[in-house]
Design goal:
Number of strands: 2
Shape: rod-shaped
Strand order of the largest sheet: 1-2
Helix content: 40-55%
Largest sheet: 2 strands, antiparallel
């Protein structure tokens, strides 16, 4: 039922051995514990998101592509145009 040791200790300390009172106390402590856990999680996640947004992302290395144009074997009027990455090596057969 109770997950946090603080609330388990409170329940043991406030327990009166009156069945209806103990069940009421346990229900109240479970409800408060759920609220406390939700609040802590919400605050921690919010702080982590704020901390993450403060960090500047590293800029990627941009290299300009290589543009080539050569006469086409299929058509005389339209050249063959190619846009390739600088690290691309063309395999000659």
């Amino acid at each position: 039922m109770l997950r946090l040791n603080e609330f388990k200790t409170l329940y043991k300390a406030w327990k009166q051995d009156i069945v209806w009172f103990d069940h009421l106390l346990l229900g109240l402590l479970v409800w408060i514990e759920d609220w406390v856990i939700s609040k802590r999680v919400k605050d921690e996640v919010g702080d982590a998101i704020k901390e993450y947004e403060k960090v500047e992302p590293p800029m990627p290395d941009y290299t300009t592509p290589i543009y080539t144009e050569k006469p086409s074997e299929a058509s005389v009027s339209l050249p063959e145009m190619r846009l390739t990455a600088p690290w691309y090596k063309e395999v000659k057969e």
